[in-house]
Amino acid sequence: MPQQILLVEDEETILNSMADFLEAHGYVVDRAQELAAAQALLANYRYDLVITDLRLSSVNRAEGLSLIEEIYERYPWTKVILQTAYRSPEVDAECRLNRVHAVLDKPQPLPELLKVVRKVLGGEK
């Protein structure tokens, strides 16, 4: 059974290119451009991995971190990768506290993203 991934990214071009790339490598991928859409998908589907951006709006907030907290409250088995162009020691500390499996700087080349996804999910595709 293919592994299920939820991508949460507010930039449509990035979202679609990541999703298309991961789908081409055998993953089933759902897409969300905002926090509410991601929450709705998480309420109805089980994911092996969630890849989320830190900031999901132009309001300069860290919605990705609140999404991660929600994921682990409801689905402690789900693995999480956080992507951000705004990495800081505070973000890294928050990610460690929230058991994030990997933190990636944006932009991330798609082949590098795939390597991290495979490592986090514990298998080759």
In short:
This protein is an alpha/beta fold.
In terms of topology, how is this protein built?
Elements: E1 4-8, H1 12-24, E2 28-32, H2 35-44, E3 49-53, H3 63-74, E4 79-84, H4 89-97, E5 102-105, H5 110-121
Parallel strand pairs: 1-2, 1-3, 3-4, 4-5
Helix pairs in contact: 2-3
Give your account of this protein's structure.
The protein has 125 residues and is an alpha/beta fold. 45% of the residues lie in helices and 20% in strands. It has helices at residues 12-24, 35-44, 63-74, 89-97, 110-121; strands at 4-8, 28-32, 49-53, 79-84, 102-105. It has a five-stranded parallel beta sheet with strand order 2-1-3-4-5, with helices on both faces. Helix 3 (63-74) links the parallel strand 3 and strand 4 (79-84). The radius of gyration is 13 Å and the shape is globular. It starts with a strand and ends with a helix. The mean pLDDT is 89.
Which spans have pLDDT < 50 for at least 5 consecutive residues?
none
Rounded Rg: 13 Å
* Strand order within the widest beta sheet: 2-1-3-4-5
How many helix segments?
Answer: 5
Main sheet summary: 5 strands, parallel
Secondary-structure element order, as H and E? EHEHEHEHEH
User: Rough shape?
Assistant: globular
Instruction: Kindly report the average pLDDT value.
Output: 89
Helix and strand composition category: alpha/beta
Give the termini distance in whole angstroms: 12 Å
The total count of strands amounts to: 5
Which strand-content bin applies to the residues?
A: 15-25%
Helical residues, percent: 40-55%
Oligomer: single chain
